[in-house]
C-alpha cells in the first residue's frame, strides 16, 4: 500500500502559502453550520407538519395528534442526525480514496500530472516565467501537489471526520426544534383551530429561514423566503389531503 505523509501540506515559501490559501478557500465551511441547522430544522418542521395535519384531518382527537407529532419529532431527529453523520463520513472516505489515487498518479505518471498543473494555472491567466515558477513550486512537494490537484482538478476539500458527530448533533437538535414548531398550537388549541394556526406559524418560520439564508449567502431574501414557505407548506398539505381521504368516522 502506498505510504504518504500527513494530509496537512508542507509550506516552504510564501508562494506556496499564497497558492494553498487560494486552493483551500472553501466558502462551504463557513456556511456548513447554517446548512446543518436549515437541513434539520426545515426537514423536521415540514415532515412533522405533514404528519400532524394528516392525523388532524383524520381525527379530531387532540391527544392523538400530539402523540403522532411527538413520535414523528423524535424519530425524525434521530433519522436526520444519523443521515448527517453517515454522509459526512462518506464524504471523508471519498476524499481519502481520491487523494490516494492522486498520489499514485504522481508516482506513476508525473509528467502528465505536471502538465495538468500547468494547464490549471495557465487557465487562470499565468504564463511565462511566473507560470514555470508556480508549476515548479507546486510539484516540488508531493503533499502540495496532491492538495492542489484535489482542490483544482476534482473540486474536493478535506472533510474532518470529527465534524461528523458535530454535524449529526446540530442536525438532530435542529430537527427537534423545527418539529416542535407546528406541534405547539395543538397543545393549547382544539384541532379545528390548531390546523390553520399551525400552518400559519410554520409558513412564517419557513419564510424567515429562507429570508435569513439568502441574507447570509446569496439570492433575493424575499423570494427565497417565499419559495421556502410555499414549498414547505404545499408539501405538508399533502399529508392533510391523505388524512382527509382516510378520515376516521366519529364514534357512534
Mean pLDDT: 80
Number of DSSP E strands = 0
Order of helices and strands: HHHHHHHHH
Which of globular, elongated, flat, extended, rod-shaped describes the shape? elongated
Helicity level: over 70%
Report strand %.
Answer: under 5%
**Main β-sheet description:** none
Rg, nearest Å: 25 Å
Task: Walk me through this protein's architecture.
With 252 residues, this protein is mainly alpha-helical. It has one domain (31-245). It has 9 helices and no strands. Helix 7 (162-188) runs antiparallel to helix 8 (191-216) and helix 8 packs antiparallel against helix 9 (221-245). The longest helix is centred in the middle third of the chain and has 47 residues, at 62-108. The chain starts with 13 loop residues before the first helix and ends in a 7-residue tail after the last helix.
What would you say about this model in short?
This protein is mainly α and 252 residues long.
Compile the SSE list and pairings:
Blueprint: H1 14-23, H2 27-58, H3 62-108, H4 110-123, H5 128-139, H6 142-153, H7 162-188, H8 191-216, H9 221-245
Helix pairs in contact: 1-6, 2-3, 2-7, 2-8, 2-9, 3-4, 3-6, 3-7, 4-5, 7-8, 8-9
Amino acid at each position: 500500500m502506498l505510504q504518504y505523509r500527513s494530509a496537512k501540506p508542507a509550506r516552504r515559501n510564501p508562494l506556496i502559502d499564497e497558492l494553498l490559501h487560494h486552493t483551500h478557500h472553501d466558502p462551504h465551511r463557513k456556511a456548513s453550520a447554517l446548512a446543518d441547522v436549515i437541513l434539520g430544522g426545515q426537514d423536521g418542521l415540514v415532515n412533522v407538519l405533514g404528519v400532524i395535519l394528516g392525523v388532524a384531518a383524520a381525527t379530531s382527537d387532540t391527544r392523538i395528534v400530539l402523540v403522532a407529532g411527538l413520535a414523528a419529532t423524535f424519530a425524525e431527529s434521530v433519522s436526520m442526525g444519523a443521515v448527517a453523520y453517515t454522509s459526512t463520513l462518506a464524504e471523508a472516505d471519498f476524499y481519502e480514496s481520491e487523494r490516494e489515487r492522486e498520489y499514485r498518479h504522481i508516482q506513476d505518471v508525473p509528467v502528465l500530472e505536471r502538465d495538468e498543473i500547468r494547464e490549471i494555472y495557465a487557465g487562470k491567466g499565468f504564463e511565462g516565467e511566473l507560470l514555470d515558477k508556480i508549476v515548479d513550486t507546486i510539484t516540488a512537494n508531493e503533499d502540495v501537489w496532491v492538495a492542489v490537484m484535489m482542490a483544482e482538478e476534482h473540486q474536493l476539500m478535506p472533510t474532518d471526520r470529527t465534524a461528523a458527530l458535530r454535524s449529526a448533533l446540530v442536525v438532530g437538535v435542529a430537527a427537534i426544534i423545527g418539529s416542535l414548531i407546528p406541534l405547539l398550537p395543538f397543545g393549547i388549541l382544539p384541532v379545528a383551530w390548531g390546523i390553520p394556526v399551525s400552518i400559519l406559524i410554520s409558513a412564517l418560520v419557513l419564510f424567515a429561514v429562507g429570508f435569513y439564508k439568502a441574507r447570509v449567502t446569496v439570492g433575493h431574501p424575499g423570494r427565497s423566503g417565499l419559495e421556502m414557505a410555499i414549498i414547505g407548506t404545499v408539501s405538508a398539505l399533502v399529508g392533510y389531503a391523505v388524512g382527509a381521504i382516510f378520515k376516521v368516522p366519529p364514534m357512534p
